Each structure stands twice: as structure tokens, then as C-alpha cells.
Model the fold of this input.
Amino acid sequence: QESMFKTALKKITNRISSAREKIRISRQKYFSELEGWTIFCNNCVGGMLYHEYGLRFTSPLINCWMSASDFIEFSRDYEAWLRKTPEVYFSDGEAAPVLSISADGKNRSIPIHFIHDRDAKTVLDNWMRRRARIANRDKTAFILCDNTGLSKSEIEEFLAIPGLKKRIVLVPCDRDELPDVPSIVRVPGCSKDHFELTAFRGCSGFRMYHCVDWRNFFAQSAAQKQ
Done:
């Protein structure tokens, strides 16, 4: 009975927060600071930021998921990984298509799971169209979400990649061993055992990833907490 009560309460809370989110998005001002940015992210946070601020999708990484370690590899030489036409396939037991990217000189490929899609052609068409919209290499942002339990050294490797114009790492709030630097944000309410960045924060109409002031992140050189 307690479990049923918690499930019912969560549904009610999510409905209230979803309604408040829609009202908040409809009332918020246009943020010119975000215009023209290409957001590379290894989960749905990037696509949700585009949607929330009413921006055109200028990144092929929309409505998809890849492991954090694969995203680090992608970020090292993202232009090379985007250069070749990818392949799309279906893994055994999975309904969502997987898009596989490769690059010259690399002895591996990177699988990207398009979890909200069911049609391979749509996934490939969207990828090619949005890839062509990347117009300004000086306005690229990399958001690494620690969805697979990265080691401290892997996070440090990502932060040390040369040439990335803007980057940030969202990690569980209980990653106490990581350094206190502006590029690493411990997300309140998200632990190693329950790292759900797109979940609502109570009935607030905000989600877990709103612990970052995204307007400031794109306008300034470092992310600040709200």
C-alpha cells in the first residue's frame, strides 16, 4: 500500500510540475545568448534545452543517448566523428534504432541510441539535416552527463580536451571525491543510485538539470548555480 501511495503521489506531483513547466516556458523571455549554439550532449538534456528555449535544432544529438565514455571519445575529435555518413541498425530485443558513427583513423565505432524513435530512415534523415546546420564552430557546447559512473580520471580527461569552447559535467550529488571547480556540477537530488536529470524537482516546474543557470552558461565562460 505504501508503494502504491508513493506511485500515485509521484504521478500527481509530475502532473502539477508539468503544467507549471508549460506555463513557465510560455512566459519566459527570449534568450538571445542561446541563439546559434550547437549543443552536444550524451542524453536528452541537450534536446530539452533546445525545446525549452524555442531554438532550432542545430545539433544531430537530439532525443538520443550514448554512454558517457563514448561521449568523451566523441568530444575529442567531434568533427571527424561527424564527417562520415553513419549506419543505422536495430539491436536484438530493442525497438529503438541505433545509429553508429565512425571516423577515419579510429579503430572503433560509437553507438548512439535514439530512444524516442522507431524508424531508421527518420533517424538518419534527422541526423544528416541537423548535422548540416552546425554553422559556427566557436559556438559549440559540450554537456557531459555522468550516466554510467565515470571515474575521476575520465572526467579529468574530458575537462582537459583541447579546443572545446564550452563544457560542463553534471554528476551525482554524492561524488564527493571530485574537485570543486565550476565545470563540475553536483546535481542536488540526483545520487549515484538514482541519476535522473530530466525528473521534476517536486512541483516546481523545474527539472533536475535546472540546477545550472543555462542562460549564464552560454553567456559567460563558466556555469553558475541558481
